[in-house]
Amino acid sequence: MQITFEEVSHVYGVGTPFERLALQDVSINIPSGSFVGIIGQTGSGKSTLIQHVNGLLQPTKGTIRLGDVTVTPTRKLPHESRRNIGLVFQYPEHQLFEETVAKDVAFGPLNFDMPPEMAELRVREALEIVGLDYQEMKDRSPFLLSGGQMRRVAIAGVLAMQPKVLILDEPTAGLDPAGRKAILEAIYRIHREQSLTTLLVTHSMEEAARYADRLIVMAGGKVMLEGKPDEVFAQADTLRELALDVPETVSLISQLNRKLPEEQRLPSSVYREEELISHLLARISDRGER
Amino acid sequence: MTEERLLALQEVSFAYEGEGGQKETVLNRINLDIHKGAFVSVLGHNGSGKSTLAKLMNALLLPKEGTVLVTGIDTRDGELIWEVRRHVGMVFQNPDNQIVGATVEDDVAFGLENMGTDPAEMRTRIRESLQAVGMEAHLYDQPHRLSGGQKQRVAIAGIMAMRPSVLILDEATAMLDPMGRREVLNLARRLNREEGITVVNITHFPEEAVFSDRVIVMRAGQVEWDGTAAEVFADPDRLQALGLDVPFAVRVRHALAAEGVSLPFILHQEELVEHLCKLLLKR
């Protein structure tokens, strides 16, 4: 589903002493099927931005288009469109509430009046996608699972709605490396298999570099940079000014390029680790060092 | 000298009660000594027993078997439990769950008030400990208005005010953004270097372990590995098999070496840059 923001601003607490401009004239275009990494410091407007995409917040000014639906300050996102847009909040495991895993994941589909047999099928599929065994997990209490398992159950609850747009707010925060990888790989797989449009809010440039095909960098409620990962990572100075990192791959290449003669420099468009390694190998074997 | 041994775990086991009432062993006969002034990182995947280990070190949990000694005090000695906790301060993962005061000053004062510290002494210690964490300008601020990294620094100040021997960071950087993470880690390194505080950093981030004197890898309730960062990261395959990551420079060097490129062991990115340049420029 294509997502466009046209000059969208959002002000919290209009007319109160706490009035705060959280989004300022944001214009973005996210083509259908993109995997977008949204990056920025805490307080930069990332969460406000994504809450506009699923209709939790309405713009104070501007227009948002989600497929053929238009949202404006006076026109809300219709209820039936909401099920197309799945939002996984930060620490989604805090929102688990049912007594069994199966009931928790089924809550959304049942709430949208899906017949129980169909909902069960969806639950089964959703748990499989996040790598949990349905038979083994369905009757267990979600509160007695490990942190990583709880997070997967919560994500399954959103996937069971079969959204067309999947928004994840730091889905890997606080997990160990194996848990982070498992969740991101599952998300990436379903993104491709179901041709979703996916928005991933992350602090990790490594995660953004690995999975996203577009990046949006936010600061102070504005979009500072937008584009393909290599275009964004090429703006290392701007990123540093915003107290953001470049991926370690990009920083390694720029350090190497500073020391290498011009004709030997590595292409600065490389940012994936595997790609960097094969470039280095090719260069080194050219020099007969292997 | 034996007093150099700040923390000692001897044959320590711990078990939680599981879902159906059965015992789930989390730590199994651990033996560990931590010396004064060390900076120790503890790695391990979720459920490996890292956090239980930390909680045993300041008597938040008591061993089911074996003995935990903090500056020679047995943590099971109920009379001395507050002495143990004064010596071993702990910062947890979620910055929002450990702030108790309405202002930064109140928050740092909390532990001191509990100990019945003299008010004049209390003011001095609050000022000193906030200076130590670089938060003196926020004395009268409301903690909920601070960033995650700042909140964790205030939590550390509350511990520093108690003049502890050991600071335990139990995944204290896990919920922070990269800037907050750097703030907290740099602070812990400085307190270790300049104030001689012994630091135990429990973390999922291998880059944080690169700077420690010692890295302990936990697996299924046991110490799988205990050595210098160079020793532990020398075998990335073994760590990755445990679901753990290794620092970027180690990963790149390992991938190149696996393809036959001759490179010595590398821990830091600067070394990697230097060696790669040599290889790329050599004729």
Q: Count the helices of chain A. How many? A: 12
What is the SS-derived class of chain A?
alpha/beta
Overall structural domain count of chain B: 1
Low-confidence stretches of chain A: none
The strand order across the widest sheet of chain B is: 6-7-8-3-9-10
Give the neighbour order of strands across the main sheet of chain A.
6-7-8-3-9-10
> What would CATH call the architecture of chain B?
3-Layer(aba) Sandwich
CATH topology of chain B: Rossmann fold
State mean pLDDT of chain A (0 to 100 scale).
Answer: 92
Unreliable stretches covering 5 or more consecutive residues of chain B: none
Family (chain B): Belongs to the ABC transporter superfamily.
Membrane topology (chain B): Peripheral membrane protein
InterPro entries (chain B): AAA+_ATPase, ABC_transporter-like_ATP-bd, ABC_transporter-like_CS, ABC_transpr_CbiO/EcfA_su, ECF_ABC_transporter_ATP-bd, EcfA_1, P-loop_NTPase
Pfam families (chain B): ABC_tran (PF00005)
From the structure above, extract its key features.
heterodimer; A: 290 residues; alpha/beta; 6-stranded mixed β-sheet; 10 strands; 21% strand; B: Rossmann fold; 4-stranded antiparallel β-sheet; 11 helices; globular
Plain-language structure description:
The complex is a heterodimer of chains A (290) and B (283). Chain A has 290 residues and is an alpha/beta fold. Chain A has a domain at 247-290. Chain A has helices at residues 46-53, 79-82, 101-111, 116-129, 134-137, 147-159, 177-193, 205-211, 229-233, 236-241, 248-259, 273-286; strands spanning 3-12, 20-30, 35-40, 61-66, 69-71, 85-88, 165-169, 197-201, 214-219, 222-227. In chain A, the strands form 2 sheets. In chain A, strands 6-7-8-3-9-10 form a 6-stranded mixed beta sheet, with helices on both faces. In chain A, a hairpin with a 2-residue loop joins strand 9 (214-219) and strand 10 (222-227). The longest helix of chain A is centred in the middle third of the chain and has 17 residues, at 177-193. Chain B has a single domain (2-221, 228-246), classed as Rossmann fold (3-Layer(aba) Sandwich), CATH 3.40.50.300. Chain B has helices spanning 50-57, 81-87, 104-115, 119-132, 148-160, 178-195, 206-209, 229-233, 236-241, 248-258, 269-281; strands at residues 5-17, 23-35, 39-43, 65-70, 73-74, 88-91, 166-170, 198-202, 214-219, 222-227. In chain B, strand 4 and strand 5 (73-74) form a beta hairpin. In chain B, helix 3 crosses helix 4 (119-132), helix 3 runs parallel beside helix 5 (148-160) and helix 4 packs across helix 5 (148-160). The N and C termini of chain B lie far apart (55 Å). The mean pLDDT of chain B is 90. Chains A and B meet through helix 7, helix 11 and helix 12 of A and helix 6, helix 10 and helix 11 of B.
